[in-house]
Amino acid sequence: MTASQRMRAHLAAVVLAMVAMLVAASGALGAGITLDRTVSPPQAVVRGSGTQFFNYQITFTSTADRYVFTVMDPNGVQIQAPVTVNLAGQGSPISGNQSWTPPANAAPGRYTAELNFFSSTGFEAQAKVTFDVADSLGTLELIKYEDINGNGVRNAADPGVANWSFNLINPQGDRSAATTLTGGNVSLANIPAGVWRIDEVLQPGWVAISPPGATANVTVPANGTGSVTFGNARPAPLTGTVWVDANGNARIDAGESGRGDVTLTLTGTTGLGDRVTATTVTAGDGTYEFPGLLPGSYNVRVVVPNGFSATTPVTRTNRIIRSNIGNPNNNFGITQGSGTITQTPDIGIDKRGPATAQRGQAFWYTIIVNNRSNFVARNVQVTDLVPADLTLVAIPAGATIRNGVVTWNLGNMSAGARRVLRMRVRVNPTTARNTLVNTATVTATGLPPRRDTVTTKLKDAPVVRRTGAVTG
């Protein structure tokens, strides 16, 4: 054979080999296997008693020959003789099932079932599934909620969050996943007993509140339930405007514009008790924002620029942020010119007493004072002129009395503060009046007097005094 003949023969052999490979490949590409099991992670079967069932379907375009089913332990070691099933003469698709019961000495962990399909020309397709084997089983309950006030404890108003994903690691270190259902709960029964690690999958716009780090360990007892709760919140902003209050009426009127480059400071405490401080400056239109605040209580203060004075309180206190609910309209007015603007506090006074009484009876008056302002009310004082038809039983606690006027000097009251004052009196037994009227008055720096009155009717008849001589 000449060299050229040998070359032609070699090329022909190569071409035939390539054709054979293409034929085999086309057959393999035409084959497919779906393999499933009845118990899938995180659920498990108990060694020595539980049985795992497998369902399969094989589709192919070649000539079927056989399939081989194998089970391997967590180390990848084949733990039983392969099961070979003859498929000769069968057409596509082929469906069936297999089962396997882990022996009592099987190691707990993740096992692999493997099914290999062979045509008349050789191997064509493979499918694998994993499943878990355990000593004993229990139930894991996952609870997911939105922590509205961010305090790390689920309150009645905190709703559950559905469709929230968790990554799970079982006691043998094998991984799986779970997702909450409607109401924010999911219960996973028949899982390996022992200590599980739970990691939540954080979603955009949410922050983990509890447990810290968005991860927790929970013990699932054999034949019992282990439960773990995760709370998250959505940060929200505190916003407002600094504007030039041209007429000084503390309201943003038409034609009044914002003031840019004004500094504001924020302080506060989150629902978990963590302290927060921040600083920002207003934009050109006077607006400002402290973004991404966790639920909590905050105070914001404006730094009045040189050459300006405030027409509104310079500090707004107790600004509440809730999950995904910001706190807007924290506005500050300034006007050109220096000087001190006296703030007018909003102080409420509520005087209470009996609707009826009798002559000679002793009873209590109660006076409730509230600072409804968002700033400190200074030099708060309450006075009460005791009517001539009443007598003080004793000088009230914390009060002084002069010329029949009872006075409580309360001093400075912080924003939202509340004081309760009490005064015990006795109705003069000889009074001729049928109605008693008593008024309490509150004053403070910048506050005109405010009053509240209680009217009490006397139920018994007045004493009739007789005059003249007695004859007999």
Written description of the protein model:
The protein has 472 residues and is mainly beta. It has four domains: 27-134, Immunoglobulin-like; 137-233, Immunoglobulin-like (Sandwich); 237-336, Sandwich (Immunoglobulin-like), CATH 2.60.40.10; 347-458, Immunoglobulin-like (Sandwich), CATH 2.60.40.740. The chain contains one helix and 34 strands. The protein has one helix spanning 3-29; strands at residues 32-37, 44-46, 52-59, 64-72, 83-86, 94-100, 109-119, 122-134, 137-146, 165-169, 175-179, 185-192, 194-200, 207-210, 215-220, 225-233, 236-244, 263-270, 275-281, 287-293, 296-302, 308-310, 315-321, 332-336, 347-352, 356-357, 362-371, 377-385, 390-392, 400-402, 405-413, 418-427, 435-444, 447-458. The chain has a six-stranded mixed β-sheet, with no helix packed on it. The chain is elongated, with a radius of gyration of 42 Å. 28% of the residues are buried. Residues 12-28 have low confidence and may be disordered.
Offer a quick outline of the entry.
Helices cover 6% and strands 51% of the residues.
